[in-house]
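Below is one such protein, fold included:
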Amino acid sequence: MNQELEDVNKFYNIVVEFFANYSLQIVGAIIIVIIGIIASKYIQKLLLRVLLKNNIDETLSGFISNLIRFLVVAMMVILALGKLGISIAPFIAALGAVSLTAGLALQGSVSNFAAGIILVLTKPFKIGDTITVHDVYGEVEDIKLSYTVLRNEDGEEITIPNKYMIGDVLVNSFSYRVVEGSVGVAYESDVNKAIQTIKEIIAAQEDVSRENEPIVGVEKFNDSSVDIAYRYWAPTKSFFKTQYEINLQVLNALNAADITIPFPQREIRILGDNNVSK
């Protein structure tokens, strides 16, 4: 029993001595950390306001302001540790080792993150544009720092890592995609009338872009037909719907105008018996 009381008394004396010697340092360290947290919030809001006022992207502005806030708090914590007489060199070395390990393990994510910052700064496309990258197309729905979200006509959500957006071929057709089609008419048909009919059908379609004029003309001369090609711009969200509707209207209109769409034809000659060797 006496031994236990002596142990408790020693512990009490150690605690009292510690607070007597380091109470001011502890209070000072706590005050430094509190000041750092308050100051970081103020600096974050001020920096975010300045960045947005200068038309910096909202995502990038939020990232920069949060990073600065973290750095301010980290600096104040380092000062607080120094106030307590704790050497920060081991912490810095450990932090460096952890950062190196994390960087190697997450190098793909870091690449996406860096690419996202470049996309935000250069702005090769914006939300609502239609882009094609790596044979994948869709309307841009959201741009994050690590990935970009597309949505196609089928309503599918496509997530593309941002590293594929940088250093590769990227096609931006804005809110439309070009549609290409062709139809063959007989040589004896009125080709000019067929071209004019197709132009009128495309012009009457509400979904077709008015900014880019459709192109209709003779594409090539086949064995049994003259091929008339047509190109126009359709909204990404109704690309196939518009294409199929116009193709059907073209077929019906050409039939109604007595313009023949011929079948492939071949001329076959049968040699007589006198030409057959015996």
Summary: The longest helix spans residues 2-53. The domain at 176-256 is CATH 3.30.70.100 (Alpha-Beta Plaits).
